Amino acid sequence: MRKYFLISSALLLLIWGCGSTRDLSDLSSDSRLEQAIKLYQEEDFQDAATEFEALLLQYPGSSIVDDAQYYLGMCKFQREEYILSAFEFSKLIKNMPASEFIADAQFMLAESYYELSPDYTLDQKYSKKAIEEYQAFVDFFPLNQRVAEAERKISELNDKLARKEYSIAVIYEKMDYYTASLKYYDAVVEIYHDTQYAPLAMYRKIKLLMDREREDEALKEMRKFVSMYPEDQNFNEIEDLKNSLEAKLKGGFSSN
Length: 256
Prior knowledge:
Blueprint: H1 2-25, H2 29-41, H3 45-58, H4 65-78, H5 82-95, H6 102-116, H7 125-140, H8 147-174, H9 178-191, H10 197-211, H11 215-228, H12 235-255
Helix pairs in contact: 2-3, 3-4, 4-5, 4-6, 5-6, 6-7, 7-8, 8-9, 8-10, 9-10, 10-11, 11-12
């Protein structure tokens, strides 16, 4: 009797399980999406991602595919799988340009690369990708409420790129590779002129030119410095140097 009861219970569980599976498969695409989003909101990102992937496979022509694609990207992002999240957001942008999620996907694509941006001493390809995607967001969605955040992060990343170029210039200078050092100082000023490292680079270039007795070139840089950076902490020093060098050069011409 006990054996019969156990077998009957097992059969009931099997039937119930099959019934629940059938009920799930009978849900509409909208209901399936709702269940997947609920998993996402409960921070069950792995199971949610599995559901969103299933939706994309089962309903490729449905109106819910852009929802599923966006939330799939968000699941990857929340799991700190940033290369995968960038891939998923890129798919939405490329394949569903009319989606209501386009602006959010563009911003999150930039965010994915931002999270991949390493310390300034390392390769900065992801920093550059993040800047590119944030700029695309600003250009295409100028009225979006997250534009200010995008611009702040562009500035932050440019500062990191400038710091890397500036540090390379300093290293070359210490190694007495003066031509290479000057080249990198010029790049910082030209490319990253709105960062804190631009006046530092020009200041170091001026000092280096003076040390190498290249006074004509140094004077040209001094004049640019006082014109461009009147609020810089080194302004008074460079202005005094400029005035002194101008007087010296003028005196030298007069004596001739």
